[in-house]
Specification:
Four copies of one chain form a homotetramer.
Chain A lengths: L3 E5 L4 H12 L3 E8 L6 H11 L3 E6 L1 H14 L11 H20 L3 E3 L8 H12 L4 E3 L5 H6 L3 H11 L12 E4 L4 E4 L29 E8 L2 E7 L4 E4 L1 H14 L4 E7 L5 E7 L1 H17 L2 H19 L6 H13 L5 E8 L2 E8 L7 H4 L11 H21 L1
Parallel strand pairs in A: 1-2, 1-4, 2-3, 4-5
Antiparallel strand pairs in A: 6-7, 7-12, 8-9, 8-13, 9-10, 11-12, 13-14
Helix pairs in contact in A: 1-7, 3-4, 4-5, 8-9, 10-11
Amino acid sequence: MGEKLVLAYSGGLDTSIILKWLSEKGYDITAYLADVGQEEDFKAAKEKALLLGASKVYIEDLKKEFVQEYIFKALKANCIYEGNYLLGTSLARPLIAKKQVEIARKEGAKILSHGATGKGNDQVRFELTYLALMPEAKIIAPWKEKEFIDKFKGRQDMIKYAEEKGIPIPVTQKKPYSTDENLMHTSFESGILEDPATAPDDAMFKKAIVPQNAKDSETKLEIVFEKGIPVLVNDLSNAKKISGALEIVKHLNKIGGENGVGIVDMVENRFVGIKSRGVYETPGGTILLKAHRDLEGLTLDREVSHLKDMLMPKISELIYNGFWFSPEMEFLNAAIEKSQEHVNGTVKMTLYKGNAIITGRSSADSLYSQKQSSMDEEGGFNQQDSKGFIKINAIRLQAHQKREQK
Amino acid sequence: MGEKLVLAYSGGLDTSIILKWLSEKGYDITAYLADVGQEEDFKAAKEKALLLGASKVYIEDLKKEFVQEYIFKALKANCIYEGNYLLGTSLARPLIAKKQVEIARKEGAKILSHGATGKGNDQVRFELTYLALMPEAKIIAPWKEKEFIDKFKGRQDMIKYAEEKGIPIPVTQKKPYSTDENLMHTSFESGILEDPATAPDDAMFKKAIVPQNAKDSETKLEIVFEKGIPVLVNDLSNAKKISGALEIVKHLNKIGGENGVGIVDMVENRFVGIKSRGVYETPGGTILLKAHRDLEGLTLDREVSHLKDMLMPKISELIYNGFWFSPEMEFLNAAIEKSQEHVNGTVKMTLYKGNAIITGRSSADSLYSQKQSSMDEEGGFNQQDSKGFIKINAIRLQAHQKREQK
Amino acid sequence: MGEKLVLAYSGGLDTSIILKWLSEKGYDITAYLADVGQEEDFKAAKEKALLLGASKVYIEDLKKEFVQEYIFKALKANCIYEGNYLLGTSLARPLIAKKQVEIARKEGAKILSHGATGKGNDQVRFELTYLALMPEAKIIAPWKEKEFIDKFKGRQDMIKYAEEKGIPIPVTQKKPYSTDENLMHTSFESGILEDPATAPDDAMFKKAIVPQNAKDSETKLEIVFEKGIPVLVNDLSNAKKISGALEIVKHLNKIGGENGVGIVDMVENRFVGIKSRGVYETPGGTILLKAHRDLEGLTLDREVSHLKDMLMPKISELIYNGFWFSPEMEFLNAAIEKSQEHVNGTVKMTLYKGNAIITGRSSADSLYSQKQSSMDEEGGFNQQDSKGFIKINAIRLQAHQKREQK
Amino acid sequence: MGEKLVLAYSGGLDTSIILKWLSEKGYDITAYLADVGQEEDFKAAKEKALLLGASKVYIEDLKKEFVQEYIFKALKANCIYEGNYLLGTSLARPLIAKKQVEIARKEGAKILSHGATGKGNDQVRFELTYLALMPEAKIIAPWKEKEFIDKFKGRQDMIKYAEEKGIPIPVTQKKPYSTDENLMHTSFESGILEDPATAPDDAMFKKAIVPQNAKDSETKLEIVFEKGIPVLVNDLSNAKKISGALEIVKHLNKIGGENGVGIVDMVENRFVGIKSRGVYETPGGTILLKAHRDLEGLTLDREVSHLKDMLMPKISELIYNGFWFSPEMEFLNAAIEKSQEHVNGTVKMTLYKGNAIITGRSSADSLYSQKQSSMDEEGGFNQQDSKGFIKINAIRLQAHQKREQK
């Protein structure tokens, strides 16, 4: 029997071919399929993997861990990459790869393999996680192997190989773009989306309806947070109370999607130095981010909030670039965790045709004081103090100006 | 004749009373009314000021300067305070105060006065600008003067004084909140808005209709940018081409408002250390910010973009806190200006019920390469290079992990 | 009996006069003298305070807490203000003020008082700490009270008052500058030092000899760190091993001072907006900072180290400005603490005439690999990987250049 | 004739062998030798290059450009990498590579070659510059070519090849470490320095004497800056006035070196992810950095200074990592340039046995006001303003504490 290898297997044509190809090269293959909330017939995928030569198949349900340890950690930091992208794929990859390493350890395998290409971000996220957690890992990424690339120059070569090898070819027409799907989002890129001047087709979306086609009624809800994490959703329009991390995200995806919330279209910067056009739908994540940020307005100290705003792009960049498991993430996360101690309270929202509208917020840990804020009463604030405050703040500006005037 | 004083006069009840009060204290008052795009009967305001004792009245049309030198500078930096506020009032104040200083210089006045209270941000923005540009200025801010505050403890005192002194009292019912209006936005705060748990009334808004009440049809448009600044709006739905800084902002306000774009509701942190609930409508600014950011995705280098993202909160904080005229703003703006050299191109958008949807972008200065980005061709990108790229990036992660495993 | 008040009392002329003045105003005064390592006859100071009207005197030995909870926390972050100042006074003030609040709580006093002036940083550090820990505190700072300032316009007024009231006047000639002394440093400012063009007198220094007058022999030592904190000093030249936080700092002050280490002279920026000339001697602190930073070179991940470098000026600014007890310090310190987990090891140094020279370092937690670093062997590093690494890093630079060339 | 290639040639054994090896592979080689201030017999090097097969030799005097456009730019930003390294080599590499690209353009060559290894930083600095300025460049780095590495496994292989090919072998014993020398510094690494626990030999240094062996007398001097750049050195001890960028650096190297200034020993983080031990001597640069920073204390606004402190580590990292020619450097440099407008004035220093002691500073552009700073007079500063200043600053700390107490 050959060297042991664990392959991150998706069930699709690419990784099926890779499985077969690796199998023919003599590897003893454990196929591993991560369930992070994507639509998939896991049973069929398992059978196919075994058929194609896998000696063992793992199907791992990572959904709950994905929400609690990945999505919610990014939420605490209000992560958003380049102003738009909520990092749905970026957050799932390190978890998928971490579990793959665990399987490799259990199986005594030293080789890890994946089906990501050499131009994208996912290869980086997979491989940095492999090496960060299993420094001695050997990696086989067929799409970066000359022999493999030479063999499979286009889709026709793959179909031909599949036919020869008895690999089932999906009956559905290949979509004119690539997608990645998980609990947090669906991403769309490549193919017809490669022209950044052209809008995507409204029918492309899976989790969300475009605002123009969304239902005419509003959905009203409340989200309750504890230490920066949603613990309860009160769906007022549907008279449902949802708790549990996974259930909350699923429900927000549902009602967010119906209301057309969370579609973005952008040109983004990949870690490998090229620009790429990405379209994303992240209904639940968008609602949560908006609500979380709003609650921080009520409960977080100003300077902590501004430090978070300055560090957020860095944290998002680290996640995007695949450095989830890194000393710098541990460093920054220690601060983020500290900041969430008092982010408790309830945010009220209305979802309506693409909008996630904040309609109120309250917290037992509020730092807001109506009396202090009010223009109608002193509220413990001596307005004359502001005179000195401003004068002292102006001193260096005055010195600067006096020099300019010389 | 008394000491010369220039008063930032709005025409409303507060600054009318202040004008009269200062006049009775014997100051030689120049009333100054800045036109930054608010709704106002400037002629009537002028007459009222003269009636109340102003020896001279200036009405300054600052609209164009406001757009070109303030709104567009913030746009270049993608400024947004605490994730939501587009700084409409914060941007107008330094301009208003700068012109007031110029008038003071022309009139030989040493005293500057304004009607902002001691709890808010505007006092800071006025006074820091006064002192930054005219270090020798003396400031009279009646709402921070004991004598004035003792005299005017509530609205009743003000109405009584107005009646005694023949100050016209607005016939319209006082609104149950305060507003500030200019070309960029209308702000709403105080009064019934002081309860952050309660949503504002849909009827409150002036520039924008709430998404729920917005028109059913879309508005499609294109915005052309040169060096980070909009130079043309092609309103496809209304078959109009608009150029000119001021005209562009006005038109975007109009179509943005009709489509319910740009309303935000937040709890924010004032520079004086208190939290405050603010509601804003910024239709045109919201559209421009979204379009500008999108075009930067296509035309800006990744690292410049990420540096801008890190510095943006700082720049926004400086604007919010009244440090528009400061050496640190000059320092940061030098970098921002540099970054905009290639931010040229066209962004296509659809406005619809609160959404400003990007539907495409193009630029002769694009850094995006379809070939390079494509998953279907090499496009000058050797995917095998990624192997070394990732391995080298992993080296310190591996070292970290090896130590952890010890 | 009057209202209870706790005065931060130094034993010197200023706070003696303040004590008497407050006493005559009828306050029931608890004098509180903090021992942070300064030279002082605490017994005599106590007697003097009682003589001048204090109803109670606290003398608090804060030395150990100062080292462990303040000096070492700043050390972990490599704090240095504006490139030079090691924050000796800034670190002591919050501790002194915190203990004062504790005494006020114990004594049931609501009023806190100190002798710092209105132009300096110490007033801010005292008062921000008072209010941060005891929000309801009332503060009396006589040097900002009109009545007090009017009475004491110059030193002559103070001496006259002292003579009238029987306040002992120090027999020693008043020094032509001010100093503040504690375990970490002595600061010198004001008086003849106010001319930034003139060097201080060599004889002024207390803890350190200027390099030109330092002894001719070297002192060799080793410092052992655990989790970023020094736990052992091996003084090789004097054949002594010193452990214990307080003893380590004292010993490093002694040998550092003999070798002329740690004198700086700078123009710095005070929080109140004015520039100030300060001269400092920080022998032990300088040695520790240099050693700590060096050990981080060996044991800290690069990206963590660079994040620390970016945040260090902010942390130092917060300490300098009196925000030791603030949510933003808690936020940043959480990250700093995390970073120190592996900062273990030994640094070898030679002290000689102003120099603290690193002569070697070692650590069981080293991230340095001689094999990997070596130019003479592969050491697990495939140099060909660098090709791809550089090419991928160059991609966006090439795109930028191609656009420039158009 | 073969393909044209420009080789960065040093005259040493490595690049001589590379020249010969490339020549034998049939390339038409232009050897290029940059004079950045290193000790070198350029005439002999030229003859050797021609002898070894170069068809043409360029010797470029880059000294003045190096000082004015590279060293001084870094000085303006107070650049220092990881707290210690003044970036001497990092600053020279992009200039050397830029000129190499210019020669390639002139000669019509498409291929650029250098002798740096695959583990170090210099390969990155060379190649990123090549590709940033000449995106179409082809690069041959023999130390990363399998064929070359296989052939030259150790020094013995190189000597054997040199003997076979008639390449002159330096008669001097190879030093047990590597060095790089230019006007700014000499670096020492590798070989016996690879053990970070062992101090370097005192005799190793070229530009500076170790403090212990430095002369017993002081050197007093004044440095005059204009817009952040030194324009005059007044060497008081030697009664010389030196002007001219290049002459200033040379003179400061001389007197700095005699006084033992500017030696550092550190473990640093390379861009390729490995830690490396480096020893550097930078006498003139150290003096200039210290003087420049000091003058900024007098002439720079506080907030600009603090922003520079925050950005400095990033700028230094970019320089270290080879991103001198990059959009992000242009972005940051625009701000740095702006900041230097008023950095004019004179700094007085004393050099003595490793110390560069500031003894005074003055400037017609000073922002320091003795009156304002003085504790003995009001100086236009109303100390009572500080009350309000502190109270307002404390408001959010009080709110935070009140919540904690709940």
